[in-house]
Design goal:
By secondary structure, the protein is α/β, with parallel strands linked by helices. The protein contains 18 helices and twelve strands. The structure holds glutamic acid.
């Protein structure tokens, strides 16, 4: 049995019940075969893949909080510290009712590869809670965040683990957590959390980084395809921070986002989400915590399709899922194919396409850009925030944007080169996994069995 198969069987035996985690482990290890085959004996001897698939540490804790009526509630909180071979743990906090340990292990595992691709010294982690921010008052949100950090503070620090936001956790929530963290530790250690507001150490450009970075990556890919953003139409899912940033940059470069989706359905705006008024309405919708994309259609008078996904229903040149995992499923992939719409899938959310759908796209000659590469600018900007905090100075928005441009161009070049080196030319998914794994495994080998 090959070493990869051996490890897959071991992980399956231990963690088989963790669906999302198994999905990412399978996807990644399958694509690492050419690299592992070159070091089969050494890697087996060092149990390197077993260690790669085992988080270094996991904290689980109770998060009690009191609502506006005085009723107490209990949520569950976690921090998964997956791998610190190349730097302190880094990754967001997700507050969403679908959060569980499997989801966070999958996200932390992906994060370790993504962070490595940025070329910056950050390991991988992720955390969050099954708390649902939807419909909560401002005070309830603050009390929840304060309770969450009252336990999380023990596990984080600028040189240990630096969480940021993710779904359901933005600048406001990070602010509430940072305030309480500062009181508990009694020091202004602002590198312990990123995605902060600018007055207390947040980086300029952090709010737009993930969306802009996804577009910078697309621009690099387009250079090879002889295309430009100008004149291209995009269909997005989600309407949160990432979709907002991407829409803004696409509009600036002369492209057009024609669809967005939410848990309630999707909107189709053939005129494009191109004016500042329309783009910034996404922020208004997010801040309302209603979680309804229909509000956009009501406001701007365009089509709304209740309970449906846009995939294969909206005609656009590029599909960009920006919402959450497993959004494009095999039935969506079939519909896209039957309708003959877009042949380019730029994954922006983490693992937004099921493995079955990815396999279908690859077999049918689609271009699929993997999320670990495409959305890496968010965490890259977070690392730049840590750097600025450590140096006690701040860079201009232009400096940050310029550095992000370089990071994204390098990622595109490195993953395409890695794909070529390991005989998978044109396969950006394998290229991303291989480029990151080469470096992480090398660092792990160098540090001995630990
Ligand atoms: N949650 C974001 C991600 O998935 C950002 C993480 C960070 O900035 O640490 O990459």
């Amino acid at each position: 049995m090959s070493y990869v198969d051996e490890v897959l069987a071991k992980v399956e035996a231990k963690d088989g019940a963790e669906k999302e985690f198994m999905q990412t482990v399978r996807e990644v290890l399958e694509s690492l075969r050419p690299l592992v085959e070159m070091h089969e004996e050494e890697y087996r001897h060092l149990a390197i893949l077993e260690r790669l698939c085992e988080p270094e540490k996991i904290a689980q804790f109770r998060v009690p909080w009191v609502d506006d009526q005085g009723q107490a509630h209990v949520n569950r909180g976690w921090r998964v510290q997956f791998n610190s071979a190349i730097g302190p743990y880094k990754g967001g906090l997700r507050f969403h009712p679908t959060v569980n340990l499997s989801v966070l292990k999958f996200l932390a595992f992906e994060q370790m590869f993504k962070n490595c691709l940025t070329g910056l010294p950050i390991g991988g982690g992720k955390g969050g809670s099954d708390f649902n921010p939807k419909g909560k008052s401002e005070d309830e949100l603050m009390r929840f965040c304060q309770s969450f950090i009252t336990e999380l503070y023990r596990y984080i620090g600028p040189d240990l683990d630096s969480p940021a936001g993710d779904l359901g956790c933005g600048t406001k929530e990070i602010g509430y957590m940072f305030g309480t963290y500062k009181r508990i530790v009694g020091e202004f250690k602002n590198g312990a959390l990123t995605g902060k507001a600018v007055p207390y150490g947040g980086s300029l450009g952090r709010d737009t980084a993930t969306g802009y970075g996804a577009v910078y990556f697309t621009e690099e890919l387009f250079k090879d395809l002889g295309k430009t953003i100008a004149g291209t139409t995009f269909c997005l899912s989600g309407f949160g921070n990432v979709a907002w940033g991407a829409s803004r940059k696409i509009a600036e470069l002369g492209g057009k986002v024609v669809a967005l989706s939410g848990p309630d359905g999707y909107i189709y705006d053939p005129e494009g989400i191109t004016t500042p008024e329309k783009i910034d309405y996404l922020v208004t919708m997010r801040d309302s915590r209603r979680d309804k994309v229909q509000d956009y259609a009501d406001k701007f008078g365009c089509e709304f399709h209740a309970g449906e996904k846009p995939w294969g229903r909206v005609n656009a040149d590029v599909y960009m899922p920006c919402a959450t995992q497993n959004d494009i499923r095999i039935e969506d992939a079939h519909r896209i194919h039957e309708e003959g719409h877009s042949k380019i899938i730029i994954e922006v959310a983490n693992m937004p396409t099921t493995q079955e759908a990815v396999d279908f796209f690859v077999e049918n000659g689609y271009i699929v850009a993997p999320s670990k590469a495409v959305n890496a600018a968010g965490v890259a900007c977070s690392e730049m925030e840590m750097s600025q905090n450590a140096m006690k100075l701040s860079w201009t928005a232009e400096e940050v944007d310029e550095k992000l441009h370089v990071v994204m161009a390098n990622i595109y070049r490195n993953i395409t080169a890695a794909a070529k080196k390991y005989g998978k030319e044109g396969d950006m998914i394998a290229g991303a996994n291989l480029a990151a794994a080469e470096k992480i495994l090398d660092a792990m080998v160098g540090q001995g069995v630990c």
